[in-house]
Amino acid sequence: MAMTGDFRRWFAETGQSGFVKLFDPTPHNFTWGNDDEEIVKNCLAAMEEQIIYEGPQTIAAIQLESIPGAGGVLMPPDGYMQGVRALCDKYEIMLILDEVMVGFGRTGTMFGFQNFEGVIPDIVTFAKGISAAYVPLSGVGMREPLRKWLDDNPLGWGATYQAHPVAMACGYEVMKHLIKEDLIAHSKAMEPILKEGLQTIVDNHNSARQARVSGLFGCVDIVGEDGQLVQHLHEKPSPKVAAFKAKLMELGIFGLFRPPLFHCAPPLVITEEELRDSLKKIDEAFYVLDF
Questions:
Q1: Cβ(73)–Cβ(213) under 8 Å?
Q2: Is 281 left (phi over 0), alpha (psi -120 to 50) or beta?
Q3: Which residues of 113-139 are buried (b: 16+ CB within 10 A; e: fewer)?
Q4: Can you state the angle between helices 272-285 and 239-250, rounded to 10 degrees?
């Protein structure tokens, strides 16, 4: 909890956390243009400067989400993730990538980091998709040298439900189905349809901005009359936002909704017909938010 920048850490974090937050290269109101390469260069230079300030020998790891999910499906700009990997190699720092939301086919690749050529984490964390959310299951993967080291240097840590047979059986069946039905390719094939549908919503409504999509993982920002985000994540939804959520439910659209972000992460087995129908209903609901 202390490692993240999410506001939910406020309820768990006490005193000095020992973690340093990094500058986010993909804030909601940032639009990448012709100077992308220069911006990435500056972002990486700022990260390297911070590494030097902290002292590379004091840094155990840099942890990122491959594609930040709860923050709004934020797509790292070209070259950024490769640059972070290079900095970790240069200063002998481990790279940990969080795949809890984007792992197992969600972005059209088995893991989200596979969207960035040449980027392989030292440690990867995952959950959700590995069991299709039927039962709780999460895990940690690591490169072979780390695994071997832990064989001789075990951690004094455990979990009551570690390797629970029901969860493991569920995860195994889900992975077999994922591969047999090639749902990863299906997720990638549905990407242009999701992208088209969310962009149509942005085009049709002044309350929607910036459609972002990777595989079957998409998001749009909800804005108010001033053109700014309609609220911060930690704030109570306004009556208008509550009415939008009620309209979605009335139309048969159920899911996690965290204003000012509208995430769209349908099941990987969704058909094109079902996806188009859902997007039409979401488009209808957005009229409640327009001004």
A1: yes
A2: alpha
A3: bbbbeebebbbbbbbbbbbbeeeebee
A4: 150
Give me the residues of the chain with pLDDT under 70, please: 13-16, 27-34
**pLDDT tens, residue by residue, 274-285:** 999 999 999 999
Q: Are 76 and 34 in contact (CB under 8 A)?
A: no
- Give per-residue pLDDT as tens, 85-122: 999 999 999 999 999 999 999 999 999 999 999 999 99
- Please name the fold of domain 7-180: Aspartate Aminotransferase; domain 2 (3.40.640)
| Assigned token pair, 55 | 């002292």
Q: What does pTM read for this prediction?
A: 0.91
CA angle 8, 23, 62 (to 5 degrees): 80
The CATH number assigned to the domain with range 183-288 reads 3.90.1150.10
Which class for 282: exposed (0-12), middle (13-18), buried (19 or more C-beta within 10 A)? Answer: buried
